[in-house]
Inverse folding.
């Protein structure tokens, strides 16, 4: 029995796989598994290699609490020595302790105008951001730009700018949520980034930046309530990606944007 997909169905399936994070093919050529039968080749077992420590050093244990502490200490020192945003970006590019770096195409540092009164902090790059090397450029980013325009602000508006970054500079596999160890490891860079960018108010979009800087999550309860972190007023808000999935929440998002606009007039 011969089966075939029409163009529309095949295109829809491909788009669904891309949305789920499958952005690369595993093999160099397609396989028709209906023709392989019992002759399907088995993958050769990879030899087990036990890494040997260098002379005078202990074996690396990247997954242990001690190793994670060492990575966080290294991040703190690298961030501390950065004297400006360019230096901080270089320090993050040279940081080798975060496994996400090896699977990402780009270091996604920031966008907008440094020194803007508003700094927006998101979660992590997605597929589009990883490709372009800029935060918030996919569908969620386009919605963010429309949201900012509604209160007469924008990432490229010199007279009313914003500055945009993320907790993590590298894309997690399949756009998964960053784990606590990754957040803790990169937190010193985030704190130094905020310090060097010197905004007057910080907008935390979604649970991950709230977890990083406020130590708690639950954005539905936290959004719209002004709080403090890093000696700055902080406004938690829904992430634009959440608004795309839940359009009914745009009403609350609009209220938060108006609160942001009002707060800026007082600063």
């Amino acid at each position: 029995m011969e089966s075939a997909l029409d163009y529309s169905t095949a295109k829809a399936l491909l788009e669904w796989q891309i949305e789920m994070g499958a952005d690369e093919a595993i093999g160099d050529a397609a396989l028709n598994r209906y023709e392989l039968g019992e002759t399907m080749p088995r993958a050769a077992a990879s030899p087990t290699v036990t890494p040997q420590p260098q002379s005078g050093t202990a074996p690396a244990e990247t997954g242990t609490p001690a190793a994670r502490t060492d990575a966080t200490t290294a991040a703190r020192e690298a961030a501390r020595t950065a004297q400006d945003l360019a230096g901080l970006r270089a320090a993050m590019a040279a940081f080798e302790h975060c496994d996400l770096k090896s699977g990402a195409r780009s270091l996604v540092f920031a966008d907008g105008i440094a020194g803007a009164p508003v700094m927006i902090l998101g979660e992590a790059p997605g597929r589009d951001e990883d490709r372009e090397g800029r935060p918030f450029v996919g569908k969620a980013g386009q919605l963010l730009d429309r949201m900012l325009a509604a209160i007469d602000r924008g990432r490229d508006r010199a007279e009313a700018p914003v500055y945009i970054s993320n907790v993590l500079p590298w894309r997690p596999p399949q756009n998964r949520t960053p784990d606590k160890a990754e957040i803790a490891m990169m937190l010193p860079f985030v704190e130094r980034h905020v310090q060097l960018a010197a905004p007057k108010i910080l907008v935390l979009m979604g649970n991950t930046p709230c977890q990083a800087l406020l130590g708690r999550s639950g954005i539905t309860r936290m959004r719209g309530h002004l709080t403090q972190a890093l000696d700055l007023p902080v406004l938690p808000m829904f992430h634009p990606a959440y608004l795309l999935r839940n359009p009914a929440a745009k009403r609350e998002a609009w209220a938060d944007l108006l609160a942001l606009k009002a707060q800026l007039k007082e600063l």
The two ends are 71 Å apart (CA to CA). The first strand starts at residue 111 and ends at 112. The CA atoms of residues 191 and 203 lie 14 Å apart. Residues 180-197 form the longest helix (18 residues).
